[in-house]
TrEMBL record:
<dbReference type="InterPro" id="IPR050893">
    <property type="entry name" value="Sugar_PTS"/>
</dbReference>
<keyword id="KW-1133">Transmembrane helix</keyword>
<keyword id="KW-0813">Transport</keyword>
<comment type="function">
    <text>The phosphoenolpyruvate-dependent sugar phosphotransferase system (sugar PTS), a major carbohydrate active transport system, catalyzes the phosphorylation of incoming sugar substrates concomitantly with their translocation across the cell membrane. The enzyme II CmtAB PTS system is involved in D-mannitol transport.</text>
</comment>
<feature type="domain" description="PTS EIIB type-2">
    <location>
        <begin position="386"/>
        <end position="474"/>
    </location>
</feature>
<dbReference type="Pfam" id="PF02378">
    <property type="entry name" value="PTS_EIIC"/>
</dbReference>
<dbReference type="InterPro" id="IPR004718">
    <property type="entry name" value="PTS_IIC_mtl"/>
</dbReference>
<protein>
    <recommendedName>
        <fullName>PTS system mannitol-specific EIICB component</fullName>
        <ecNumber>2.7.1.197</ecNumber>
    </recommendedName>
</protein>
<dbReference type="InterPro" id="IPR029503">
    <property type="entry name" value="PTS_EIIB_mannitol"/>
</dbReference>
<keyword id="KW-0808">Transferase</keyword>
<dbReference type="InterPro" id="IPR003501">
    <property type="entry name" value="PTS_EIIB_2/3"/>
</dbReference>
<dbReference type="InterPro" id="IPR036095">
    <property type="entry name" value="PTS_EIIB-like_sf"/>
</dbReference>
<dbReference type="InterPro" id="IPR003352">
    <property type="entry name" value="PTS_EIIC"/>
</dbReference>
<feature type="domain" description="PTS EIIC type-2">
    <location>
        <begin position="21"/>
        <end position="350"/>
    </location>
</feature>
<feature type="transmembrane region" description="Helical">
    <location>
        <begin position="320"/>
        <end position="343"/>
    </location>
</feature>
<dbReference type="InterPro" id="IPR013014">
    <property type="entry name" value="PTS_EIIC_2"/>
</dbReference>
<feature type="transmembrane region" description="Helical">
    <location>
        <begin position="169"/>
        <end position="190"/>
    </location>
</feature>
Length: 474
């Protein structure tokens, strides 16, 4: 018995470590998604095969993908480790590997940015408390300059070529998989990983760099379609809408709209966990969609984020919209048909509620067993609450949905409190109440120790919103 408990704890620790690493990778890319979309739109519009070809404006495409986007990633990675000072050194170090290679250095930026932030952080620790009064600015500026110069040269001479060679080998392996027709098998790993909240890590940490390299050469890439495809999740939700029972049947249409149009894929994960066999349905849906994408030579010009059908349409190249929509439609149909079979052969009752499924989802994510300390909820006086902040990994998906729901409740109750959403690393100092999923609460407390923290199982219609609304209205 003791061995099994220890084994379970080890597995949980490994899972949490993987998730933290995945969140760190995606954290370097997610704040810069707007820049990637801007590059994608310019590419789709102005290259010779674009919607409105323009030779002069097309000159923006190359420098943006070679210089600007990797520098943004490098800066963000350094800033995550050591604030703005780390970000500046991270961008410097990234410039070295950009100039030292011929290919877009996205993976290299993900290495050099955090590494540079860590190096300057350690150097600053060495000088802490040892600088004579009046020389602080001089030492700080020159230490950053010297470290930055060393790292940019190191990136140019040594690290850049190594990363370039590794990237080429990885690209060659992926190219072989594509030519062998085995790419649909990627869904076997991608779809279950999404339910474990590794979707951002897979999409932005692995697939996006590969896709950007391919798009810079071919004008589009199928890798941008592997994870964001909303078809498999839509099939699940449609099946629940038609064949589910009780509260899950009633909630499925709204969830389908949020998922398919809003691009918040996390909303369908609890529906799978109510009937784990449905993971086979999303895998089959994903595989069939990728097969159609390959057969019709589908691809997008840049990463669509969030995974909304609108984002996929916007990132489709000229003449490539039908193949994208065909893959989404087929994956939806396959996922729906298999889900319908599974739901018809197992009764989903009200006892298997979304709330219980959400709790199960948190367990799979490595949730700690601690319950919310109700005393904390009373620490702040109602009159002092001016801002409520919802925080998630990226600050754009599930947290935005939760903030929208609570904002409406506050408006209906005439509560004049600001409600906003952000990435967990960017929680503002003036946040009075911070709402996060249970697995992220510890990180939120470290980021905003003076705020009141509310943990929820999921951001969709949580009863704690009503409790908070009642408390503030009183």
């Amino acid at each position: 018995m003791g061995g099994s408990i220890e084994s379970a704890e080890n597995n949980s620790n490994i899972r949490v470590s993987i998730q933290k690493f995945g969140r760190f990778l995606s954290g370097m890319v997610m704040p810069n998604i707007g820049a990637f979309i801007a590059w994608g739109l310019i590419t789709a519009l102005f290259i010779p095969t674009g919607w409105i070809p323009n030779e002069k404006l097309a000159e923006l495409v190359g420098p943006t993908i070679k210089y600007l986007l990797p520098l943004l990633i490098g800066y963000t990675g350094g800033k995550m480790v050591y604030d703005v000072r780390g970000g500046v050194i991270g961008a410097l170090a990234t410039m070295g590997i950009i100039v030292g290679t011929e290919i877009p250095m996205f993976l290299g930026a993900m290495i050099m940015g955090p590494l540079a932030g860590l190096v300057i952080k350690l150097v600053d620790r060495l000088f802490k408390g040892k600088i004579p009064a009046g020389f602080e600015m001089l030492v700080n500026n020159f230490s950053a300059g010297i470290v930055g110069a060393i790292l940019i040269i190191l990136g140019y001479v040594a690290i850049g070529p190594v990363v370039a060679t590794s990237t080429q080998l990885l690209a060659s392996g992926v190219e072989w998989i594509v030519h062998a027709g085995l790419l649909p098998l990627a869904s076997i790993f991608i779809e279950p990983a999404k339910v474990l909240f590794l979707n951002n890590a897979i999409n932005h940490g692995v697939l996006s760099p590969l896709g950007l390299k391919e798009a810079s050469e071919a004008g589009k890439s199928i890798f941008f379609l592997l994870e964001p495809n909303p078809g498999p999740g839509l099939g699940i939700l449609l099946a629940y809408w038609l064949f589910g029972k009780g509260s899950v049947k009633q909630s499925a249409p709204g969830a389908a709209i949020i998922h398919f149009l809003g691009g918040i894929h996390e909303i369908y994960f609890p529906y799978i966990l109510m009937n784990p066999r449905l993971i086979l349905a999303v895998i089959a849906g994903g595989m069939s969609g990728v097969f159609i994408f390959q057969m019709l030579n589908a691809g997008l010009v840049a990463v669509p984020s969030p995974g909304s059908i609108f984002a996929l349409i916007a990132m489709a190249p000229k003449g490539g919209l039908f193949s994208v929509l065909a893959g989404v439609a087929v994956s939806t149909a396959v996922s729906f048909l298999l889900s319908a079979v599974f739901l018809k052969t197992k009764s989903v009752t009200d006892e298997e509620s979304l709330e219980k499924a959400a709790e199960k989802m948190q367990d799979m994510k490595g949730k700690k067993s601690a319950v919310v300390d109700q005393a904390i909820l009373q620490q702040k006086e109602t009159a002092s609450v001016k801002k409520v902040v919802f925080a998630c990994d990226a600050g754009m998906g599930s947290s935005a949905m939760g903030a929208s729901i609570l904002r409406k409740k506050f408006k209906d109750a005439n509560i004049a409190v600001e409600v906003t959403n952000t990435a967990i690393n960017d929680i503002p100092e003036d946040a009075d109440i911070v709402v996060t999923q249970k697995t992220l609460t510890d990180r939120a407390k470290a980021k905003a120790p003076h705020a009141e923290h509310i943990s929820v199982d999921n951001f969709l219609n949580n009863p704690k919103y009503d409790e908070l609304t009642k408390r503030l209205s009183e």
